[in-house]
Give the backbone structure.
Amino acid sequence: MELRFVKSESTFSYFGALESYLLKHGRPVAFYSDKHTVFHVAKPNEHMTGMTQFGRALAELNVEILCANSSQAKGRVERANRTL
């Protein structure tokens, strides 16, 4: 429901897309994504919470992040990307 063509996938580009989405549609219940490092810390250590800056922002908005955990779920995300 929000698409931007940017030079690279970054936290800042996702913040921009999120801001635009929120202004148009309001707060969603959940955010469904793959396990890109913007959304998911691959190997958190003892000093980390495992939450990214984007994840913290969504938590402040009370929006759940759902990361694709199976190859089938990952396929749904990638199929949408391929279509776009």
In short: Residues 11-25 form the longest helix (15 residues).
